[in-house]
Amino acid sequence: MRKLAIPAIATLMVTLAAAPATAGGGGHGHHPESSKRLREAVTVSGVRDHLKAFQKIADRNDDNRASGTPGYAASAAYVKKTLQRAGYRVTEQKFVFPFYEELAPAQLTRVSPAGAAYETDTYDFSGSGDVTGQVVPALNNVLPPTPEPSSTAGCAATDFAPASATAPQIALVQRGGCDFIVKATNAKAAGYDAVIIFNEGQPGRQDLAAGTLGGPFDLPVVALSFADGSALAAAAAAGVVTLRVQTSTFIDPEAVTSNIIADSRGGDPNRVLVVGAHLDSVVEGPGINDNGSGSATILEIAEQVSKLKVKTNQKLRFAFWGAEEAGLLGSEHYVANLTEAQRATIYANLNFDMVGSPNYVRFVYDGDGSDTGTAGPAGSGEIESVFTDYFTSQGLASDPTAFDGRSDYGPFIAVGIPAGGLFSGAEGVKTEEQAQEYGGTAGEAYDPCYHQACDDISNISNRALSELGDAAAHAVWTVGRLKGPLASPAVPAGAGSGAAAGGGAHGHPAS
Ligand SMILES: [Zn+2]
Hints:
Blueprint: H1 8-23, H2 36-41, H3 44-60, H4 70-85, E1 89-112, E2 121-122, E3 129-137, E4 169-174, H5 180-189, E5 194-198, E6 221-224, H6 226-238, E7 242-263, E8 268-278, H7 288-307, E9 314-321, H8 329-336, H9 340-344, E10 346-352, E11 363-365, H10 380-393, E12 399-401, H11 410-414, E13 419-423, H12 432-438, H13 462-481
Parallel strand pairs: 3-4, 4-5, 5-6, 8-9, 8-10, 10-13, 11-12
Antiparallel strand pairs: 1-7, 2-6, 3-7, 7-9, 11-13
C-alpha cells in the first residue's frame, strides 16, 4: 500500500521544498527554506566515491569489512579522516564484542542406516566439532506441527532425555517458543555433544534457515529444513539412527571494534539528531550495498552539510556503527552507555541501512505503525511523514516497511527515542505491483547478493542511490531544522510505546 495522505508539518516542509525549484525566486523561493541546495550537493558520484573507497578496502582485506577484521578498521579510519577533514568533532568509541566466522560449510551425513548427506548450515556462534553419534529427538517436538507456531521444544531443561554417558549423542530439536541458544544450552546440559535444530513447519517456517545463537557456544549446532528434520525424528523414533556432524568455525569472544561518532560544530547540544548507518559488512563479502550504501550516503551528506555551512537547530551527530551484523552491537553499546541526561538530549534517530539495492523499492520505516501495526515512540510518525511527503512532492511513491527493530534504530526506539529512516530492500522478493511502480524484476529479491560475496561495487542501483540519497539529505535538513518538539519530548527510558528491539540484525534470527 502506498502513501497518499499528507499530514500538516510535512506538508509545510514539502511545499517549501517543492516550490523553490519551480517558483524561481517568487514567494518561498529563497534557499534558506529548502533542502534543495543540499540535495543537489549530495550527488550519486559523491556517494560512489566513498563506495569505491570501501570496495578498495575490501579488496585489500580478504574481501570483507566485517567488525573485528582489518577491513573494518580501514573503513573506520577512512570515515574518521573524511569527517575530520570536513570539520567535525570525531570520536572513536571502542568496544569488545564476540567475533564469529564460519571457516568451512557444515556437514551432516547419515552413518547408519546409510543415507545421503543432508543439506545443512551452521548456526552463528556454533562451536567447531566433529561428532558421530545416535540422534535423540527432544521429548516435546510438535509433529505434525500446529497451523500456527506453538512449539516450545527444548525450551525447558526437562525437554531432553538425559544423554548417554558413554557414547556421543546428538540432540534433534524443533524451532519455536524460545531463542535457539536456550535450546542448545538445555541440550548441552542434558549431556548431548551436538545439536540439530529443524524449522518448525508452518508456511514460511519450512526451509533450511540457520539462525544465530547470539554469542559464543562450544558445541556444534546445525540447521535442517522442516522436511528433513521431521523425517529424521520419525526415523529416530522407529530405530537407531547415527549421524556425523561437522562444523568449522572461529570465535573470538573478546574482539575489539568501534563506532565512529562525529558531531557538527553548530546546533543545540541538548537537541541531538543522530544520523546513523552501520559500517560493518558480513564476513562473507565486501558489503557495498549492505551497508556501504548507507554509510557512504550519510558520509556524503555530512561533507555537504559542512561545505554548504547548513545551519541546523539540532546538533547533527553522524554515527557509523560497528558490529551491526553481529546483532546491532555497536548501536546497542552506544545507547547503553549514554547517561540518563545524555539520553534525554537525543532528539531523534535517522537510520539508513541499505539504500542502493539493485532491484530496489523506496521503503520508509512505518513510524506510526499505520501499515504494519508496530508504531515507534511518539514522533516516529512525524519522521515517517517527512520522508513520505518528500517522495510525494517528487512524484515518487513509497512503501512502508516494518519498524521491527532489525537495524540500528532498534536500540533507540527501545528506550523511547523517536526514529525513522529508509531501506531499499534485502532478501525480500519484489511483487508484481512493486515492479510496475519501481521497475526492476518481480519475483526476484530486492538484493540478490544480500550477505554474499557478490555484494560488491557492481551490486548498486544508481537510481536508488539518487532517490533515497536525496530523501535522506532532505530528512537530515528538515528534522535538523525543526523548532520545538517532534511530537513530544524524548521520553525517559522504558516509556517507549510498543516497538521492541526485535531479533538480531537483518539476516540470522535468534529464535
Ligand atoms: Zn545491514
